[in-house]
Amino acid sequence: MNIRQLRCVCEVVRHDMNVSRAAASLHSSQPAVSTQIHRLEAELGFEIFVRRRNRLTALTANGKAIFDRAKRALLEIEGIHEIRREHLRDDTGTLVVAASHGQSRNVLPAAMKRFSRRFPKVEVTVRHGTRKQIADMLLGGEAHVGLTSDVSELGERLLLLPCHRYRRIVLVPHKHSLLKRGRPTLAALAEYPFVLYEPSGSAGPVANAFAERGVELRQILFAPNSDVMKAYVEQGLGITALAEFMFDERRDKSLRAIDASHLFPPSVTYLLLVRKQYLRSYTYAFLEEISPRLTRTMVEEAIG
């Protein structure tokens, strides 16, 4: 068993069982990757992948256990390399941030600008994803830091650090009738078509607030991100509720915001890290750019 074999397994899974794409990401060939996997299976004495007509289709039960441990092993090995780079005081490197659309659109840009001024030799990459995709990228070693407000069912291996709390607002077109009705109620909001953010197919905090009060939304539009939600509202297709940081008066000139903090729970931005993960010094600096309260001492104690 060797590191290359474990990388081959993980890359094949990451590329949805496509050996050709896995080989390309490893700068190798399809036969070479297949050979590495066959050798590992021969050594273990069981198959890692389910095969149909010589194509890999899924992980076997034992394969799932191997894949999970392979991810952890490769993450630890990468940590060893990071320790070496830190020892050499190398201020070059990469920092991959996995973030939801709202966070990458509204929270990250200013932090990245400040960080890049301090560490011009560090290449920062932002990868967008849903809650599950962000978690998979972190646990698979494809990202160093995660940023999202949706942290339900993420598992114990990820550390969640709250870094910002925002009130929720209702966004309406600039001449909407709700602007003349004072402090809104859920029943008043439900009189209008409502735009919800539901990329995962599960009810979010806004939808839950209506359900818990027994208020029915009669007409619902679904949108994949905050920009699309605001576009629907601008066109008069409905109203929506978002975290206040997603609204910019200068940019969203055709929209108006109504305080809805009395109706919906606040939106909390969480920083996600893999527990016991080794972080470079510049990564700690990046975390402080996201939130000054996330000092290196505090994060090191939390991460274990």
Layout of helices and strands:
Blueprint (H helix, E strand, L loop, with lengths): L2 H12 L4 H7 L4 H15 L4 E4 L2 E5 L1 H27 L5 E7 L1 H6 L1 H11 L3 E7 L2 H9 L5 E4 L9 E9 L1 E6 L12 H4 L4 E4 L7 H8 L7 E4 L2 H9 L4 E5 L11 E5 L7 E8 L6 H10 L5 H8 L1
Q: What's this, in brief?
A:
By secondary structure, the protein is of the alpha/beta class. 41% of the residues lie in helices and 22% in strands.
Structure description:
The radius of gyration is 23 Å and the shape is globular. With 304 residues, the chain is α/β, with parallel strands linked by helices. The protein has helices at 3-14, 19-25, 30-44, 61-87, 101-106, 108-118, 131-139, 186-189, 205-212, 226-234, 281-290, 296-303, and strands spanning 49-52, 55-59, 93-99, 122-128, 145-148, 158-166, 168-173, 194-197, 220-223, 239-243, 255-259, 267-274. The protein is built from twelve helices and twelve strands. 31% of the residues are buried. It has a five-stranded mixed sheet with strand order 4-3-5-12-6, with helices on both faces. The chain has a five-stranded mixed sheet with strand order 9-8-10-7-11, covered by helices on one side. Strand 8, helix 9 (205-212) and strand 9 (220-223) form a beta-alpha-beta unit.
What are the main properties of this structure?
about 300 residues, alpha/beta, 5-stranded mixed sheet, about 40% helix, about 20% strand, globular
Give me the Rg, rounded.
Answer: 23 Å
Task: Tally the helices.
Answer: 12
What is the molecular shape?
globular
Strand proportion, as a percent range, falls in: 15-25%
Characterize the main sheet: 5 strands, mixed
What is the count of β-strands? Answer: 12
Roughly what is the average pLDDT, rounded to an integer? 90
Q: Fraction of residues in helices?
A: 40-55%
- The string of secondary-structure elements, in order, is HHHEEHEHHEHEEEHEHEHEEEHH
Strand order of the largest sheet: 4-3-5-12-6
Query: How far is the N terminus from the C terminus?
Result: 29 Å
Structural class: alpha/beta
Low-confidence stretches: none
